[in-house]
Design goal:
- The chain has one domain (about 30-154): 2-Layer Sandwich (Double Stranded RNA Binding Domain), CATH 3.30.160.150.
- Strands 2-4-5-6 form a 4-stranded mixed β-sheet, with helices on one face. Strands 1-3 form a two-stranded parallel ribbon.
- It has helices at about 1-25, 45-50, 125-154, and strands spanning about 30-35, 35-40, 55, 65-80, 85-100, 105-115.
- By secondary structure, the chain is α/β, with parallel strands linked by helices.
- It is built from 3 helices and 6 strands; from the N terminus they run H-E-E-H-E-E-E-E-H.
């Protein structure tokens, strides 16, 4: 009797593991291979490390070269109210890139922005929020760059 319960639960657990492992094959993973990735002087090390999660270097004739020539973030204050104080901050990220092969080159500029409210009571928290939004904008710029590559490739 105990052996039948063990077999029943073991069979249920085993079938659950088989079904869950089969579902992992449904997710498509695409590794973007490039000949070479170059960065300009204005590109921070944190962005360079994040880009390695999206692009890998594998020399081949068919692969593109990527050069990220410029990356910078601008801060823009928006004022309002009776005392004309800053109410919101917009942070704009701009990325300039060049995808090149032996026969062709595609250059472009990506731009993305994010908003945060001004925190006059705690300026340190505002500075930390600006750093967090810049980190998030870096990921969004990389995702947009990935989309640009997929458009060029197709």
């Amino acid at each position: 009797m105990e052996l039948n319960k063990f077999n029943k639960y073991f069979l249920a657990l085993f079938s659950f593991l088989i079904i869950s492992s089969c579902q992992l094959d449904l997710i498509e993973t695409r590794d973007i291979s490039l000949n070479k990735i170059e960065f300009g002087l204005s590109v921070k090390d944190s962005f360079r490390k994040k880009s390695l999660k999206y692009f890998s270097q594998y020399p081949s004739k068919n692969n593109y070269n990527l050069k990220i020539s410029n990356l910078h973030f601008k801060k823009k204050n928006f004022y309002g109210g009776f005392s004309v104080r800053a109410k919101q901050i917009e942070i704009i990220g701009e990325l300039e890139y060049i995808f090149s092969k032996a026969s062709s080159a595609k250059n472009g500029k990506l731009q993305i922005s994010g908003w945060i409210p001004v925190n006059e009571n705690n300026p340190q928290a505002e500075m930390m929020a600006q750093q967090k939004i810049i980190e998030e904008l870096e990921f969004l710029l990389l995702e947009d760059l990935l989309e640009e590559y997929l458009l060029i490739e197709s």
